[in-house]
Amino acid sequence: MAPDLKKHPCFNSDVQNSFGRIHLPVAPQCNMQCNYCNRKYDCVNETRPGVTSAILTPEQAVLYLDNVIKKMDNLTVVGIAGPGDPFANPDETLRTLTEVRRKYNDMILCLATNGLNIGPYIQDLSGLNISHVTLTINTVDPEIGAAVYYWIRYNKKRYTGIEAAKLLLENQLKALIKLKEHGITVKINSIVIPGINDTHIPEIAKKTAEMGADVLNCIPVHPIPDTFFEDIAEPDIHTMNKIKAAAREYIPLMYHCRRCRADAAGLLKDKLNPEIMSMLQAFSKKENLIGADRPYVAVASEEGFLINRHLGETNELYIYEKKEGEISFVEKRQTPVRGIGDERWIELSKTLKDCSVILSGNSGENPKKILNKNGIQVVVTEGIITDILEKVFKGEKIMEMPAYAIKGCMHCTGDGQGC
After folding, report:
1. How far is it, in rounded angstroms, from Cα 125 to Cα 109?
2. CATH code matching the domain that covers 5-284, chosen among 3.40.50.300, 1.10.443.10, 3.40.50.10840, 3.20.20.70
3. HSE toward the beta carbon, residue 380, CA cutoff 13 A
4. Is the distance from CB of 141 to CB of 27 less than 8 angstroms?
5. SS3 of 252-283
6. CB within 8 A of 287, min separation 6: which ones?
7. What distance, in Å, lies between the first and last C-alpha atoms of the chain?
8. In CATH, what number does 296-394 get?
9. How crowded is residue 230: how many other Cβ atoms within 10 Å of its Cβ?
10. Contact 194, 261 (CB under 8 A)
């Protein structure tokens, strides 16, 4: 079933009291420092972007979502809004969205980003049917941007001042155009900062509307301790109404924003639910979780007793399950033929579509990346199979071994990345 886009409470105020959203906090890193932002991970009394009570891995996030849906049957939207930026954490972001889309095809998927590094991933987002993206654009004037942003980090290089602001704006506007070319609804978030950009908001509205943006959300700055703007007072309602009236001449506005946290769940009007927050904390502490629709674990083993095979050298995998409290061997499965590069790992993902984890003695980074993207954790470890499986099925932490240098396996002269 395709998502019903009218059920997005942030983009359709008529359903804000009927349908809920959940933000999965899988993106802790940020690629820029805004002068109004101080990201705190454990402050349940704050309701603002950049705050969460826990960080989840993609695997933890999907299982957390499974359990929240059992408690909240009116969730129609899954979003990623930090607490950093989704595309300072592109692997975690895409792995999460891919698995959510696989399991919940009727769910609306969206995300919020500063736009600095979203460009290379827009094609992927379109393929996942991401329907809504929020871009935070606080200025279309680099001189103002130099006052708003302390630094940005792009392509492993740090930028400051007007140079940073120019690069950020260039990437944001390119992203806006490309998102619209892919048919994605775009909301612009603009933080209203008195004395900095408060008179500039109509210019943002005009410029982004000309480039295809669908709606603008004007958010009053919230003074945060230990930031450069901590002494700037939040603009009052009269000031905000005046700014919105001017911006409305160019673009439709959002009026019901609640400045959601990165771990928000439920209706927009809902306060933090203690039961859901406890669930979030609990899942953030679990390791190597087994999904209900992926109940099996695959093991790379020479003889079926020890975890001792390199994944790239393995012709068959041992499959295990835990049923009625007992771990049992299910079957052996052949791995795809070697010599076909990335296609081997894509095919293995299909072969193991009912497996949550692969335990192996070693693995190249490329297989791990492809399998992880397809919802299968690759854990490099060693030991007796049954001992490690006990920990895996209990959700206990597994001691991972560092991958040894790959010089090529016994069967080929490759580098071990795609054999």
Report:
1. 9
2. 3.20.20.70
3. 13
4. no
5. CECCCCCCCCCCCEECCCCCCCHHHHHHHHHH
6. 395, 396, 397, 398
7. 38
8. 3.30.420.130
9. 12
10. no
pLDDT digit string, tens, across residues 283-312? 888 776 787 788 999 999 999 999 999 999
Average pLDDT over residues 349-357: 94
Q: Alpha-carbon torsion 339, 94, 15, 245, what sign?
A: negative
Indicate the burial class of 166 (C-beta count within 10 angstroms; 0-12, 13-18, 19 or more). middle
Choose among 21, 212, 175: nearest CA to 110. 21
Six-digit token string for 397: 């932490």
Tens-place pLDDT, residues 310-337: 999 999 999 999 988 899 999 999 999 9
Cα–Cα distance, 310 to 380 (Å, whole number): 9
What residue spans define the domains of the chain?
A: 5-284, 296-394
Q: What pLDDT is stored for residue 406 in this prediction?
A: 39
- Whether 101 contacts 124, CB under 8 Å: no
- Per the CB < 8 A criterion, the answer to whether 319 and 330 are in contact is yes
Contact 113, 86 (CB under 8 A): yes
Residue of 22, 10, 59, 12 lying closest to 273 (CA atoms): 22
Task: Tell the residue number behind the tokens 């995300």, with chain if given.
Answer: 111
pTM, 2 dp: 0.80
